[in-house]
Design a protein that fits this description.
Two copies of one chain form a homodimer. In chain A, helix 5 packs antiparallel against helix 11 and helix 11 crosses helix 12. Chain A has 406 residues and is of the alpha/beta class. The two termini of chain A are 21 Å apart. Chain A is built from 13 helices and 19 strands. Chain A has an eight-stranded mixed beta sheet with strand order 12-11-10-19-18-13-14-15, sandwiched between helices. Chain A has a seven-stranded mixed beta sheet with strand order 3-4-7-6-5-8-9, with helices on both faces. Chains A and B meet through helix 2, strand 15, helix 5, helix 7 and strand 17 of A and helix 2, strand 15, helix 5, helix 7 and strand 17 of B.
Chain lengths: 406, 406
C-alpha cells in the first residue's frame, strides 16, 4: 500500500501514500496512534471517534473532508497538537438532516484551525473541502456557496476503500474481531509489531468491505489501486431499516436507547424457532431447536389469536409485546441478514476476510457478536469478520487522503 | 422423472412414479388437469387451491397427506369424481394454531371419503396419513391418538421437491412466470403440448426451489432421485416476518388485507432512495435515482425531526405515516431480500431456474412481480423466476406421493 512504510510503519521516515490517484499528498504517519484519554479509558469501552495522533506530521494541512450519507454527515479535520507535536485527526458526525448546523460546525473549524473565515465571503482556493457520499453531490452548490473554498467531490466507494486501507495498515489498535470461544474482543495488526503481542492478519488483500449505514454496500477489494475494487452488491435492509422500525415500535429516543433495549429483550418471545415448529431440532439439515426459523414469526399469531384480537387497533395490538423483545428480534434479523449476504458475496469471490464498517454497528456488543457469529456459522469457520474503531469514518478518512499535491 | 410418461403425459397409460423411495405407489395421471369452475374463472384470477382431476385414476386411494408448518397446516386428500370419472385431488389449509380444528376437518374427510370414522376408536392400519413439516414431529402422538390410523412421517425438504416435480411435469397450466415487458403472466410447460401453444421450459434439472412460509428454505435440485437435492440455505426473513410486522403496524385483520393495503401505498414516502441521498442516480455503480437505498429509511428521521417528536410515544409516532406506505415498503423489503439471496444461491450453484413457492406469495401480483424483478435485476436477465398455482401445497402433494406399495 505505501511504498516505504509497509514494513516500517514505525520508523521516522514513514510516509503514507495511497495508489488511487496521481499525485496524492503524502501523510507522515510515523508513530500514528489512537489517542486514549487514560483517565476515561475502560477495558470494555470501544472508542469510536477518538482522535488519531500524527506526531511527526509537520506539513501544513489545507484540507478537511466530509462524507454526507443518507443518515449521517461525517467530518474529518486536523488540528495542531502542541503537546505531542504534529497534528491530530479529529472526527465528528451529525444527522444529515441538520445540514445547516453541520455546515456551521465546519465553518467554526475552518476559522479555528484553518485560518479561513467563510463569513468574510472571500474565496480561498487553497483551502479544500473534499466531499464524498451522496451529499457531496446533493449539497455541492450549498457547500461551495457557504464555505467559500474549493469543494472537491470524490467517489463514495473509492473513499471507503482508501479509508479502510489507511486504518488497517497504519493505525494500531484500530482493527479487532470478536472471539466467540473466549467471549472477548481481540485486536489485530496487519504487520507484526515489535512486541509480537498483537495477533497478525496475513495478506492485506483480497477482502470484502461491508459498509452499513442507512443501507448496505459491499465492496470487493483485490489490490491497492483504483482498478482493484468493485461494489459487488448491497442491501436495502440496513441501519435505516432497523432505526425506522424501532422508532415506531418502541418509545426509544435515540439509537443507543434502541440498542440498550435490545440488550434487555428476549427475542424468543416474538421469533418462531425451529423448535417451535418441530418440537425439536431439524437435525437432518443441521438446524438446532433454537435456530430462528422466522423473525417476528410469533407476532401475528398472537395478534390474531381470536376475533377480539383481530379487531383491535394497532395501538392495542402492540401492547401484547415487550418493546425489548421486538428490539432484540429486529436487531438480530437485520444483522443476521447482512451477515448472510456478506457471506454469500465473500464465498462468491473467494474472500476470507470481511470488514464490517459504517455507523450501524456503533461498536455495540450484540451487533458485533451477531455479525461475527453469522459469518462463522455460514462459512463453517473458514471466513472471519473484522471491525474497526473508527467504523463510521472510513469514507471521510478516505476522502481526506484524496488530498492532491498539484 | 416418470418412466413411461416423460414424453407421453397425455396417453392412456400414463403412470407417475417418483424416484425418492423404493416401491412408491404409482398414480394414474393421464389427462391430469386443474379444474376450473368455468362460471367463476376470471382472466386475472389465479386459482391457487383448485382441485386437480385425475380422471383415469381408478385405484383405491388409502392415503391423505398433511404438511404442518410454522404458520399453516396444509392437507391434500382425494375424493371420487362421479361426473368426470377417476378422482380429484383436493387441497385445504388452516392456521397451525388451530390444530384441533384441523384434525376435526381431517376426521370429517376420513369419514366422508375414506370410510374411516376415528370416533369409533378402531385403528385402521391400511389407512395412512402421510405427514410432513415440523408438525409431523411435534404433533405425531396427537395425530395417531386422534385419527386412529397409521401416521407416516416424511422429510419436509424431500416432500417439497417431490411435490414440485409432480406439479411441473404432470399438471398443465400449473407453472407460470411474469413477463415484465408485456406485463402479464405466461404459463409454461415442461414438455411440448400437442398444440405447441404453451411456452416450453427446457431441461427440468437443475433448479433452485425457494419455499417461502413463515421462514424461507432454499433447495438445490440436480436430478430426480433422493440423493440429488440439498437444502443450501434459507432466511429467517419470511412470511412470518412480514405478517408479524404488518399485524402491529397496521389495522389489517388478514393477510389479504395487508397485501391490498400494500397495493395502495407509496413506499417512497418511507423508503430512502438513492435519489434522496445523491439528488440523482449513483451512475458509476449503476444505481438509478429510484433504487431503494434503505427500506423505511425516512421513518426515524420523521419521528425524530424535533424534540417533540422524540418525546412522543409509539402510538403518536405511528400516526405520522400512512399504513399503506409502510405495508408496501415492507412487502418490497422482504420480497426483494428473498430475491437477492435466492439469486446469490442460484449463482453459487450455477442454477438458471428458480421456483418460488410457499404460502407467502398468495398469488399476489406485487409479490410475484417483485420476486421476478429481483431475479431479473441481479442476474442481468440470465436467470428466471417461476411460480406455481398450488404454491402452498408442494409439501403436502409430495407427501401424498410418498404412498408406499409395500
Amino acid at each position: 500500500m505505501t511504498e516505504s512504510s509497509s514494513t516500517s510503519s514505525h520508523q521516522n521516515s514513514s510516509i503514507y501514500i495511497h495508489h488511487h490517484c496521481e499525485n496524492p499528498k503524502p501523510l507522515q504517519v510515523a508513530d500514528a496512534h489512537i489517542i486514549y484519554d487514560e483517565k476515561n479509558y475502560l477495558p470494555d469501552e470501544v472508542p469510536d471517534t477518538r482522535d488519531i495522533a500524527l506526531p511527526y506530521n509537520e506539513d501544513k494541512i489545507n484540507e478537511i473532508s466530509i462524507d454526507i450519507g443518507g443518515s449521517l454527515a461525517k467530518l474529518c479535520y486536523s488540528k495542531p497538537d502542541p503537546q505531542a507535536g504534529g497534528v491530530r485527526l479529529c472526527f465528528y458526525s451529525l444527522e444529515t438532516d441538520k445540514i445547516d448546523l453541520f455546515i456551521r460546525f465546519i465553518q467554526e473549524i475552518l476559522v479555528q484551525y484553518y485560518h479561513h473565515d467563510p463569513a468574510h465571503h472571500l474565496y480561498n482556493e487553497n483551502l479544500v473541502v473534499i466531499a464524498t457520499g451522496g451529499g457531496a453531490y446533493k449539497y455541492y452548490d450549498k457547500l461551495r456557496h457557504e464555505l467559500h473554498c474549493t469543494v472537491q467531490k470524490e467517489d463514495e466507494m473509492q473513499c471507503l476503500i482508501i479509508g479502510l486501507d489507511f486504518f488497517v495498515t497504519e493505525i494500531k489498535r484500530e482493527v479487532f474481531y470478536f472471539d466467540e470461544a473466549k467471549h472477548c474482543y481481540v485486536e489485530v495488526e496487519l504487520n507484526d509489531d515489535e512486541n509480537g503481542q498483537t495477533e497478525v492478519i496475513e495478506d492485506q488483500y483480497p477482502y470484502l468491505l461491508v459498509n452499513i449505514g442507512s443501507g448496505v454496500s459491499m465492496i470487493k477489494v483485490t489490490g491497492p489501486g483504483p482498478d482493484s475494487f468493485l461494489r459487488v452488491g448491497g442491501s436495502s435492509l440496513g441501519g435505516g431499516t432497523l432505526w425506522g422500525l424501532l422508532s415506531i415500535l418502541t418509545d426509544c429516543r435515540t439509537f443507543d436507547e434502541m440498542l440498550e433495549m435490545a440488550a434487555q429483550g428476549n427475542n424468543e418471545n416474538v421469533d418462531l424457532l425451529v423448535g417451535d415448529i418441530y418440537g425439536q431440532g431439524y437435525n437432518s439439515i443441521g438446524l438446532k431447536a433454537n435456530h430462528i426459523a422466522s423473525s417476528m414469526g410469533k407476532v401475528y399469531k398472537k395478534v390474531f389469536e381470536d376475533e377480539k384480537g383481530r379487531n383491535e387497533d394497532r395501538e392495542h395490538r402492540l401492547h401484547k409485546f415487550h418493546q425489548q423483545d421486538i428490539a432484540r428480534s429486529l436487531l438480530y434479523a437485520v444483522s443476521n441478514n447482512i451477515g448472510q449476504i456478506a457471506y454469500l458475496q465473500a464465498q462468491r469471490y473467494n474472500l476470507k476476510k470481511i470488514y464490517f464498517a459504517g455507523s450501524y454497528i456503533r461498536n455495540h456488543y450484540q451487533t458485533i457478536r451477531t455479525l461475527s457469529y453469522a459469518i462463522d456459522f455460514w462459512s463453517g469457520g473458514t471466513k472471519k469478520a473484522y471491525f474497526l474503531r473508527h467504523e463510521g469514518y472510513l469514507g471521510s478518512m478516505g476522502a481526506f487522503l484524496m488530498r492532491r499535491a498539484d
